[in-house]
Amino acid sequence: MPRPRFLPDNFTLGLLGSVLLASLLPCRGNAAQLLEWLTDVAIGLLFFLHGAKLSRQAVVAGITHWRLHLTVLAATFVLFPLLGVALRPLLSGLTTPELYLGLLYLCLLPSTVQSSIAFVSVADGNVPAAICSATASNLLGIALTPLLVGWLLLGGEVGRGAGSAMGIVYQLLLPFVAGQLLRPWLGRWVDRYKSKLKLVDQGSILLVVYTAFSAAVIGGLWQATPLPALGGLLLACALLLALALGLTRLASRQLGFDRADEITIVFCGSKKSLASGVPMAKVLFAGHAIGAIVLPLMLFHQLQLMVCALLAQRYRRRAGG
């Protein structure tokens, strides 16, 4: 029986199913800890396989692609803050003052790492450059985000920490380096089963979506704000994401990047990190109720995963993947 044309692909159905399952049956307690551990293992395996399947020449080319890296960093730490400030009359009209503060906070955060790279891989983009750009964004965000928050939100100096940076090194960079070192022995096997190993990319995203959305639901995602304010917040997040996706795509084409680099710029330059944002909020806003600060980030995080999953599939189909 042929597949109905209106039916989304299996990955999109899995993504929607993960959100629905997390809303109805969020993981709690020991089950949540087990899934967090499985997610970490899947992400580490993902980066190990990326290291094993990428040639040394491709990695060097990704590291030295400085024009792309500057473009991604400009989108993350210049474009987003400008959008948050310039759109204040509109965004604050859609939400409450507390939620607008949270929207501005998410504009100051670094890009995601694992999901950005997984989406670039699914869309057949420049994976080595994505690894370098997303990692650099997250590492620089340890210093830049507190400075921007202190300047735009708190009006003074704020504390900072290096725990997130060490987590990036242990969970992402070390598996990637290990895969590179073992490539002479594993490279041919990885190339042979490349189509099957893409399930690691997609599976890691589904795990991230389910665990992140479960935590948001348990934390009172649907009860934290009245329905009208939640609807306005969703529109505000959708507007920010649409502008970021459109402007990064336009900039990449105006600057003469090829299709693979455009994919990397779009996915790495339009995302915001929930994994970095929530721990930072606990430190930066110590002594304050951070529920309204992180709620826009939680919604934006779910929205960016959903939209970017669809966009990655669209890029792949256009390339005939």
UniProtKB/TrEMBL annotation:
Has keyword Cell membrane? no
State the organism of origin. Answer: Vogesella facilis
Keywords in alphabetical order, please.
Membrane, Transmembrane, Transmembrane helix
Q: What is the lineage of its organism?
A: Bacteria, Pseudomonadati, Pseudomonadota, Betaproteobacteria, Neisseriales
This chain belongs to which protein, by name? Bile acid:sodium symporter family protein
Q: Which domain of life is it from?
A: Bacteria
The keyword Membrane appears for this protein: yes
Per the UniProt record, one Pfam family is SBF_like
Q: Where do the TM regions start and end?
A: 37-54, 66-87, 99-122, 129-153, 165-182, 203-224, 230-251, 290-312
